[in-house]
Design brief:
Order of helices and strands: HHHHHHHH
Largest sheet: none
Oligomer: single chain
Radius of gyration: 19 Å
CATH topology of the domain at 118-171: Arc Repressor Mutant, subunit A
CATH architecture of the domain at 118-171: Orthogonal Bundle
Distance between the termini: 48 Å
Strand content: under 5%
Helix content: over 70%
Mean pLDDT: 79
Number of strands: 0
Structural class: mainly alpha
CATH superfamily of the domain at 118-171: Winged helix-like DNA-binding domain superfamily/Winged helix DNA-binding domain
């Protein structure tokens, strides 16, 4: 990225090729069945291109990259969720007159993703990586470049925030 910022087009092309693979793997974990991964990857790459001047070479590249990717994935998920909810509800009502058990499962997944999308990324990421992805505290610590104790604190606080969001939705 530093070479690309300096105007090295060969380095920039190589960076984009490597980021395409990396971002696609990252987006695929979150968007399984929820949207077009390739479209989301393209949106991420465009955002990275547009924001490349904001990257500070004195700081780690991965957090900067994944912050942009996470925001685009969240946007993609929200857009696709709204469209899918309208289509699925209309289809199920027309065919069955009510939601099916499969629809209930999809709705639960959508509700969880919606609630998680409302959390600040600094709490959502450690929570998702430990509780949903099954990574260890140490792995998450290394991945997010924060201390293990901070991972534990953020998971704990994220769970509490999630509980409050659920309680608020139930009211």
């Amino acid at each position: 990225m530093i070479a690309a910022q300096a105007g090295d087009s060969v380095a920039y092309n190589q960076l984009l090729e490597e980021l395409c693979v990396c971002v696609k793997a990252y987006a695929s974990r979150f968007l399984k069945g929820w949207g077009n991964v390739d479209d989301c990857v393209q949106e991420c790459l465009v955002s990275i291109h547009n924001a490349r001047h904001t990257y500070d070479p004195d700081r780690a590249f991965r957090p900067w990259l994944f912050a942009i990717a996470r925001n685009k994935i969240t946007d993609n998920f929200r857009k696709y969720s709204r469209l899918r909810t309208k289509e699925t509800n209309t289809f199920d009502e027309a065919i069955h007159g009510q939601a099916t058990p499969e629809q209930d499962n999809i709705d639960t997944q959508k509700d969880l993703k919606f609630l998680l999308s409302q959390l600040d990324p600094k709490f959502r990421d450690p929570l998702c990586l430990t509780k949903l992805e099954g990574l260890s505290i140490k792995e998450v610590s290394q991945s997010l470049n924060i201390s293990e104790s901070l991972v534990k604190v953020r998971v704990f606080r994220g769970l509490n925030m999630l509980k409050k969001l659920v309680a608020k939705e139930i009211e």
